[in-house]
Amino acid sequence: MPDARTGEVWILGATGRIGAAVAARLASREVPIALVGRDRDRLDKARAKLGQGDRVKVVVAGTAEKIAEQIAQQRPTVVVNTIGEYAETALRLARACMPGGHYLDLAADPTATSRLLDLHEEAAAAGSTLVTGAGFGVLATEAVVVALCAGRPAPSHVRVDALASVAIEAGVMGAAFAASIIDVLTTGGLRYEDGRLARTRLGADAQHLTLPDGQKVKSAGAPSGELIAARRASGAPNVTATSALVPTGAAVRAILPLAGKLLSIPALRRFAVRQLAGLRLKAASRPRRHSWGHAVITWPDGTSREGWLRADDGMDYTAGAAAEIAARLARGEGKPGAYTPAAALGPDLAAAAGGTFILP
Ligand SMILES: NC(=O)c1ccc[n+]([C@@H]2O[C@H](COP(=O)([O-])OP(=O)(O)OC[C@H]3O[C@@H](n4cnc5c(N)ncnc54)[C@H](OP(=O)(O)O)[C@@H]3O)[C@@H](O)[C@H]2O)c1
Of the four, 58, 205, 224, 323, which is 20 to 30 A from 231 by CA? Predict the structure, then answer.
C-alpha cells in the first residue's frame, strides 16, 4: 500500500479511565503511542503519569472533526477511540483512518456497533481493519459463542449474559460513560426473533444465575453490542442478551420504559447526560470476585451447551482487551474489513486479554 503510516497508536480520550489504562499498557509494551485529548494540561498530566517523558506524543484536538483532521494529516497506524457518543462520531473517525490505517472503539450499544459494521466493504477495499465493541461486554460473550459454535451448524437459540463486576474509583462519572447509560435507556429492549431485530421491554429476560465460583448474580435484558455480536458469531435466528448492569428490582424495571421515552427528547437527554456525568461516585470494591461472560446455545435438535469466560475487574479487562487489539492491529494482524473483536482476531483474543475459558 503506497500510503506510509507512522507506526503509532493514537489513544483518543487518553485522559479518561479506560484511555489512560490502555496508554499505560501499550507504553509498557513499548508500542509507540500518542495521547489525544481536548485539554493540554490534562494531557500533560496523563503523559507524566506514564513516566516516559517526551517519547510519548501529545495531540490536542477538541472535537471529533478536529481529531479526524489530525488523523488524516498525521497518519497513525492505529486509532483507539474511547471518547464515547460512538453512534454520532465513530464513522467520521474510522473513515479518517482509511486507507491503510486501523481503528477500534469501545462502543457497547447496538446502533453504534451496527453502524461501524456497515463500513465492512469500504474498510475491506481500503485495506483497513475496524473493530467495534473492544471491551468486556462484547468480547467476553462473543468469544464464548464462537468457541461453543465452532465446527457446528447454526443453532436455533442463543442467550448471552455480560456479568461485569467493576470496582468504582472515587470521582465524577464522566460524559462518555454517562452517555452510554442514557443510550441504553433510550434504545429500550431488543432481541432477535426469527432472524429480525424485535423490540422488547428493557429489563426483560431477567436471569438469576449461579456462577461457576458459586457466587450469585442477577441480570436482565439490555440493548447491547453483545446482541449484535452473538447473532453474527452464531447465525442463530433467536438471540437475547442480558447484562448485570441493568437494575433487576421490580420497581425500577417498571419505570425503565417511561424513563427511556422521556430521555429520547433531545433537550432532556442532554440535561440527563450532563447531570449524570457530574455525579460524584464513592470508591467501592467490586461486588463479586470475578466478571463473567456467559453463553447458552441451543440447536434445532434440542441439544444445548453453555460456556463461560472468567475475568477479574470488568474495567481492567476492557483496558486489557483494547490494548491487546491495538497491539495486534499495529503488527498488521487484522484482516481488512469491519468486525467485532473475536470475529476480527479469533476467540483466543479473549484469553490474551486476561480471560479464562470454562467450556464443556
Ligand atoms: N464495551 C465495553 O465493554 C466498555 C466497558 C467500559 C467502558 N466502555 C466505554 O468506554 C468509554 C470510556 O469510558 P471511561 O470510563 O474511560 O470514560 P471517561 O473516564 O469519561 O473518559 C472519556 C474520555 O473521552 C474524552 N472525551 C469525552 N467526550 C469527548 C469529546 N466530545 N471530544 C473529545 N474527547 C472527549 C474525555 O476527555 P476530557 O478529559 O477532556 O473530558 C476523556 O478523556 C465509554 O464510552 C464507556 O462507555 C465500554
Answer: 323
Q: Which protein residue's CA is at the shortest distance from atom 38 of ligand 1?
A: 15
CATH of domain 136-313: 3.30.360
Report the separation in Å between the CA atom of 49 and the middle of ligand 1, taken as the mean of its atom positions: 18
What pLDDT, in 10s, does the model give residues 12-70? 999 999 999 999 999 999 999 999 999 999 999 999 999 988 889 999 998 999 999 99
Measured in Å, residue 110 CA sits from the centre of ligand 1 at 17
Give me ligand 1 centre to Cα 10, in Å: 14
Q: What is the pTM of this model?
A: 0.93
- Measuring from atom 12 of ligand 1, which residue has the nearest CA? 82
* CATH number of the domain located at residue range(s) 9-135+316-358 in this protein: 3.40.50.720
The structural domains of the chain, with segments of one domain joined by +, span 9-135+316-358, 136-313
- From 25, 38, 93, 163, give the residue whose CB has the most ligand 1 atoms within 8 Å, as the site to mutate: 38
Ligand 1 centroid from CA 18, angstroms: 7
Answer whether 178's CB lies under 8 Å from 188's CB: no
